Amino acid sequence: MIEKQPEAEYEKQLACIEEARLLAEAEARQKGRPLFAHIETFGCQMNARDSEKLRGILAKAGYRDTENEDEADLVIYNTCTVRDNANQHVFGRLGHLNGVKRKNKDMLIGLCGCMMQEAHIVEKIKKSYPFVDLIFGTHNLYAFPELLLRALRERKKVIDVRDRMEYEPEHLPVVRKYPFKSGVNIMYGCNNFCTYCIVPYVRGREFSRKPEDILDEVRRLAADGVVEIMLLGQNVNSYGKTLDEPMSFAKLLLAAAEVPGIERVRFMTSHPKDLSDELIEAMAENEKICPHLHLPAQSGSSGLLKRMNRHYDRERYLELVRKLRAKIPDISLTTDIIVGFPGESEEDFKETLSLVSEVGFDSAFTFIYSKRSGTPAADYPDQVPDEVAHARLSKLLEVVKKGAEERCGRFTGRTEKVLVEEVNREPGLVSGRTPHNIVVHLPGDASMIGKIIPVKLSVCHGFYYSGEKDGE
To answer: Among the three residues 361, 390, 409, which one is the final residue of a domain in this structure?
Structure first.
């Protein structure tokens, strides 16, 4: 069991933040201007939540946030390693930063996240990108204040990558992207070991936070003005299995929805093998639980699903869809799909296309299989040629787009409650999301941000709507 930070450890990290602030203030006085920090997030919602903690710590340490990394005194890339293109993107950005740092010798560059849990990646960075000042992984985010202080004080390379998490990082200062909604980590790691996936190796084995700690966090968020939360984990459906007193995810979800002030509850990501009837019932019975489920299928071929070690087959997935739509007829279903997995035949691919057509997803994240060193699938002999995989992806995108546009159109003319999130780039418009996670643009101004308002969905534009406040 991973515990919360002991009080002594927490106080130690707060003291490191304060000392870092004094050093940053001295540097700011010397330069005659504030210090700026830029954090770039790659990957999943859990990484995004981690980046909010990084921003919170840096804000307490006296740094101002900037979107322009070229003007920053400190740049941190919070990395993802699920697919190779994410890695290559980071390496490309580092090449750019090298030029920036030549002009600004005092700039600090940090890397954290999943990429840093791979030893060969760290070695490559040490060899090919020696100007990187700070490297740490997914397991010691709680110690970032201490690592930041070392980098500021010593001005030499700091590398601290650990193979397990000692303490939860949940009590660190946070600067949320949106004041009215927030992610909440309910568990860490993954035990599924899908044959294509690096996550269990870089995030570690699965463990669940105590429900009382999660609900305390939700209450604090509600008191701070948050109206929507998203419960986060690599596989939220298996929540509770590592607790001393096991608790189902459905029960946690319902408890979170009962917290006063919370109007919407979302969650991500669900694994089909652990999707229970109890969870479906919970979604159906509580209107605060948003009728949107991201349920990664990955393939429509039972043979490939077995080879992927997904622990369900095509029929089981379709059975879950039937159960969901029987209890929640209007539910929005989204998914992830991989094409070009080793051994994927033309018949396997056709089964994926037919699954997409049969289910009718509201949207789908589609990917070409990315070989990840250290996973079983990387050593499979029957790798699919790149040109075949790209051709299949193009066909899949056509089918996904056609089905998603048809599904999205079902809300035309209806009035839905929209949580307004931001001012649109188009003057006079704001944008928000329905409970089904559909984006809506409507006339309005900044005073509407953070409010849930009834909106008539007038025109469907394929994947989003134009609308107006109901009654206007």
So the answer is: 409
